[in-house]
Amino acid sequence: MMEIDSVRVESSLWIGNKRYRAFLSGWYFSWTEIDKRNREKKTISVPVSEVIGVKEGQVEIQPQKKVEDTDLDFTLFYVKRGSKGNGIGAPRSLGRTQFCCPSRDVRDQWITQLRTALKTHSPSRPHRLLVFINPFGGKKRGKQIFHSLVAPLFELAGISSHVVVTERANQARDYILKKDLTGFDGVICVGGDGMFSELLHGVIGRTQQEAGISEHDPTAMLRPCDLHIGIIPAGSTDCVCFTTVGINDPVTSTLHIIIGDSQPLDVCSVHYQSTLVHYSVSMVGYGFYGDVLAESERHRWMGPLRYDYSGCMVYLCNRSYPGLVQYIPADSHISSPRDNTRCLSGCRVCSESKERLFPHFDSSSSLYSTTVSQYSSELEGEWVTVEGRFKCISLTCISSSCPRSPKGLSPSAHLADGTADLILVRETNPLGFLTYLHRHTNTQDQFDLPFVEVHRVKAVRFSLPPGEEEEEYEEGDREIQTSAERVLEDPEKLSGGNTAGHSQQRFSARKERGNVTTSRVKRRGFVCGPCCAKPRSISVWNCDGELLPHTEISCRVHGQLVRLFARGIEDSAVP
Ligand SMILES: CCCCCCCCCCCCC/C=C/[C@@H](O)[C@H](COP(=O)(O)O)NC(=O)CCCCC
Ligand SMILES: Nc1ncnc2c1ncn2[C@@H]1O[C@H](COP(=O)(O)OP(=O)(O)O)[C@@H](O)[C@H]1O
Ligand SMILES: [Ca+2]
């Protein structure tokens, strides 16, 4: 018999030849083993929010789909927490339990009740997703990963997806900027940090176009983006995935997407003069990391190993670069990069930041006030100046952990507190720098070295010493555009879409100020390795794996600008 009241559904069920008492109450579905003497034994509980699907009959989807349609059975699929993985967070897998009911009627009632609970308790699940696969990212396994591991889970969860296998760089970004996205609850990339960056630029650019906000203005308060981004790791570093999930595992990430987890993320905008150059989440790095990226681009054929090879080569070059770094410190009473804390799922520092970051947000209507100033007060504060020669300068909005460095560039950085950590590594001897790098891979504090300093900041700017200014760009002066403008002003690039006219009007204000002419550093192709002739005094910026065309940049953190289908790192010690 099945007992149903307004708060609880209950009946006897069988798993194999063991009898269980099953309950659905509130947010949980639980089943308790009952032995032959009617004593209760072990209970298993699954939060309804983590149920992936309920199917009639005995169903298997892994290793391949198999359905045995029997009248008395139903199969429950849910998120199962693993204990060991190759990351700092626990992997998730698909849990499956087949229940046998006393009658077909009871079976149908359980299926109805569970599906209704799922709808009630998981209102933020995506139903339709736009998926971009980079077939050349990482070990070139993007398509295989999607079709064998991700697509079957989406199907099981009733999620439909429109899949685009990219044929060129920036296709995903341009698609998001230009095409009709009505009906999509999120955009997903199957690839690495470069592919994530395309989605990031598309989503931020589109949101600002629609809000009539200029991305170029470094003081503008950018509009937070509603469209969620999901990452299926299939790249070389996969830093953003690792830092927000704790592991680079396609199945774990897929399950977070299905259950509609939501993790806000800080984003840094990088400007040259008064023009937007790029957005960054994981690393804006000058010196060592810039040189490694420049060198690695020549060895893309090596796949992810190109970074290890180039890292060794650049290390052997032992370069350092002069520069002037200025920053606005964040409030040191809230947190510090050396407070030995970790930003974990449900982080208090991040949740308390929301009110500070969005003082005009009306939570009752989920709207931003349009009457308030469009300019952020977050940039108020004194600039601090540091001058010298640096082995590397890195700015990261998040800890930037990855399999190479499980604790990351700045282990105590927060995902969504509206600040970034600025790490300055001054000129030192090769052994000192090796010690610094090596500490990224062990438990020793990489900031506890006399030539390293770290600051929690809201904004940064970098300039070259007098006499080292940027040279004129060979192709002549030309206007720098945001990704949104580039697409919108070149109708040949994409057909369709319906926002071009409006957005061109919105951006006309910037054009009225006149064309922004600019200069670029000449890039002669980075010559690295022990064979390097003589050291040059200017490095290049690595912005989330992209080489920037400018050296004298300014950066500003935009707190909680985008949302990922993730929930941060869950402490694997907590069961
Ligand atoms: C003696 C042992 C030395 C180990 C040094 C480890 C330091 C690792 C810090 C890693 C920071 C990673 C920041 C993320 C950068 C990515 O956005 C970028 C692009 O990734 P993808 O698109 O997936 O290719 N990756 C890099 O710039 C690679 C940096 C590698 C530095 C060794
Ligand atoms: N079809 C494609 N052909 C060439 N480049 C592409 C294609 N699709 C995406 N890209 C670009 O490839 C770069 C690297 O992709 P990513 O997925 O991050 O792999 P990896 O982590 O190996 O660098 C990204 O910057 C992206 O813009
Ligand atoms: Ca942050």
Written overview of the protein:
- The protein has two domains: about 1-120, PH-domain like (Roll); about 130-360 and about 380-485 and about 515-565, Tumour Suppressor Smad4 (Sandwich), CATH 2.60.200.
- Mean pLDDT is about 85; it is low at about 370-375, about 470-480 and about 485-530.
- The longest helix is centred in the middle third of the chain and has 19 residues, at about 195-210.
- Helix 2 runs parallel beside helix 6, helix 3 packs parallel to helix 4 and helix 7 crosses helix 8.
- The strands form six sheets. Strands 15, 16, 17, 18, 21, 22, 23, 24, 25 and 26 form a ten-stranded antiparallel beta sheet that branches. It has a five-stranded antiparallel beta sheet with strand order 1-2-3-4-5, with helices on one face. It has a four-stranded parallel beta sheet with strand order 12-11-13-14, sandwiched between helices.
- It contains twelve helices and 26 strands.
- With about 575 residues, the protein is an alpha+beta fold.
- The chain is about 25% helix and about 30% strand.
- Bound molecules: the ligand CCCCCCCCCCCCC/C=C/[C@@H](O)[C@H](COP(=O)(O)O)NC(=O)CCCCC, adenosine-5'-diphosphate (ADP) and calcium ion (CA).
Oligomer: single chain
Identify the CATH class of the largest domain. Mainly Beta
Q: Return the average pLDDT rounded to an integer.
A: 85
Low-pLDDT windows of residues = 369-374, 472-480, 486-531
The chain-level structural class is alpha+beta
CATH architecture of the largest domain: Sandwich
Count of discrete domains: 2
Beta-strand content: 25-35%
Radius of gyration: 26 Å
3D shape: elongated
**What is the CATH fold-level name of the largest domain?**
Tumour Suppressor Smad4
Major sheet description:
10 strands, antiparallel
The number of strands is: 26
Keywords: Kinase, Transferase
Pfam families: CERK_C (PF19280), DAGK_cat (PF00781), PH_CERK (PF25382)
Protein name: Ceramide kinase isoform X1
GO molecular function: ceramide kinase activity
